[in-house]
Amino acid sequence: MTARAASLLRFAPVALFLVLWQGVSTSGLVDRSFLPSVSSVVTAFVDLASGGEIAGNLVISAFRSFAGLALATVVGVALGIAMAMFRRVDGFFGPLVATTYSLPKSALVPLFLLWFGIGSATDITTVFLACLLPILVHAYHGVREVPRVLIWSAETMGATRTSVFFRVLLPGAQYSIYTGIRIALGFSFVLTVSAEMIAATDGIGKLLFMYGENGAYAYMFAALAALIAVAYLADRGLVALIRRLLRWHEQAAHEGRA
Amino acid sequence: MQGLSGTAKIELRDLTKSYPSRHGEVLALDHVDLSVAPGEFVSIVGPSGCGKSTLLYVLGGFLPASGAALIDGDRVTAPGADRGIVFQEYALFPWLTVRDNINYGLDIKGMKRAERDALAQRYIDMIGLTGFENRYPRELSGGMKQRVALARTLAYDPEILLLDEPFGALDAQTREIMQDELLRIWQGMRKTVLMVTHDVTEAVYLSQRVCVMSGRPGRIVREFTVDIDRSVGREAVMLSERFGAIRNQVWLAVRQQVVAAAPAGGAPK
Fold it and tell me: Which residue among A153, A159, A253 places its CB closest to the CB of B91?
């Protein structure tokens, strides 16, 4: 009971924020048409939800996020591990990663738009690229930072190279790999929305853009709230999964707050 | 003593190892000669940073070196299950439970599950960790981890034990318990043991022969034979005049190396 109360109490700052928002909006401190009240956002949300507009677009946006994230995970983990293990792979991809790491991937949307046209292909490519590097870099460091005495231990017990890879390097790098995926998960939603605002006919990003353009701010905030909820739940789900998979891990076991 | 004659289990001849560093090549081991007979327990003591661990890593087959490191007269070229190493930092797999850590080497050996579990359980009972089979290393104290590391190595039954400061991180009481445990195991199994330590008392208490290494670059400068009767128990051994005399001699020899290695007086100019 107390644990439940404590976990509810964690949302107190969020509640306080909403109360302040409502207060500022109803007091007339800010023009109502620019900052809709919380209650009007809720009304708009109910309206959108009952019309099926939110659900449909959320599914589309979530699909794009996860598709991009999944592709990035497959390629990023494989390439990151290959770079950590083979000097030649590292020599080729290392400089590419270093130079493109800080490039804002959303800047490439207009370019992808030319290549792939309006629609999911452009959005997913953008998400893929944005998620790729954090996953790759974390996989790389995860493998690199497996203590050499663990590898030596396995070798001295007669483990082959393949066995060392699957039974020492991979489990040893797991925590870092999952951390990369979690960071990329956040990026995936951000980039989906950015791409959809420019290059899509549907999705939450498009919805946000449309309502914003038309000054329907209550509806814009309602769509945004729906997206935040999905992103939050996805992150919680991933953290729970990581904690379950890495019960043995010192840090992972205490994770879950941030 | 020729390795080919088959008398020595471990033989180091003219072993020299240097590392590249920012300040050029650093000599870690300088023409080390050492021979350990089958079933013998030998310790190497010396100032910290003298290359003691490097010597074990070369024997383990992890680092190349010039000169020769021989096991049963054969050159060491790679790690192998004939040499069991217990590392200073335990090196337990954090993602495996106590049981699975001990099982790891047995599994690689190709032992069947039931047989493996039974053997692992025997070692778990022996090291007093019954009831902790399913714990992960992070849930264990330093002493427990140390015992698991030792059990893991003993379980797959290597002919040679290479111990790198195996009790360095333990508190004084646990250390004594573990030393007696090791002594009992060695007396029972008569494996060939080469232990590196900076604890003179530990070295003299456990080994038949103690080699003193110089500060970097490491060379073996003195050798002491410890001919004491260990069957009389810890108290009697530690309080005996013979033990005290040898311990003092070894301590003095190590002390000379430490002083020689340190900058004069250690005080700034």
Answer: A153
